[in-house]
Amino acid sequence: MPDTEIPQERVLDPVGVFHGARVGRDPERTPMPWTGEAGAGYSAPGVEPWLPYGDVAACNVADQRHDPDSMLSLTRDLIGLRNAMPELRRGSYTTLPSSDEHLWAWQRGDRTVVAMNCSADATDVPDAGTGEIRISTIRSRDGERITGSLHLQPWEAAIVWRDA
Which helix (H) or strand (E) element contains residue 64? Predict the structure, then answer.
């Protein structure tokens, strides 16, 4: 869910009241938009919630439920992958070396590599091994084979299952 613009007169968070709406937590605490309809599936149409709704037509659970590229689908798929891969739950953690300060990469267990590109520039994870991208934030890459390094687009994260 994107943050919702909160008019100063509607700010409830004490930090936001004291420092201004942009500093407080209220933009992240608005009602969950379950649908794109009036009331957002949260309350009856016409009932004003404690904090204002955001653009419920643009971002809501009902629309994301069947969109394979949505944040909801990504979250559900990540939970499913974690349940399916014991190394993601219990594997030992080892940070992978990198000269890129915006790359965070680590190995879980013997065969799982997780990498996050935290920048607006593409980067590579050297020596990621040979294997398959099990899931990426760029969903079209799911199932892609890699050999050697893993190339990540700006702001991309991926989980790789290395070949045995």
Answer: helix 61-64
Question: What is the fold of 82-162?
Answer: Immunoglobulin-like (2.60.40)
pTM over 0.70: yes
Strands 112-117 and 145-152, by their bridges, are unpaired
**Mean pLDDT along residues 42-46:** 94
> Are 126 and 133 in contact, with CB atoms under 8 Å apart?
no
> What SS3 class is residue 14?
helix
Residue 122 CB neighbours (<10 A): 12
Q: How does pLDDT run across 109-155, given as a tens digit for each residue?
A: 999 999 999 999 999 999 899 999 999 999 999 999 999 999 999 99
C-alpha span between 115 and 53 (Å, rounded): 34
Parallel, antiparallel or unpaired: strands 145-152 and 93-95: unpaired
Where do the structural domains in the chain lie, given as residue ranges?
1-65, 82-162
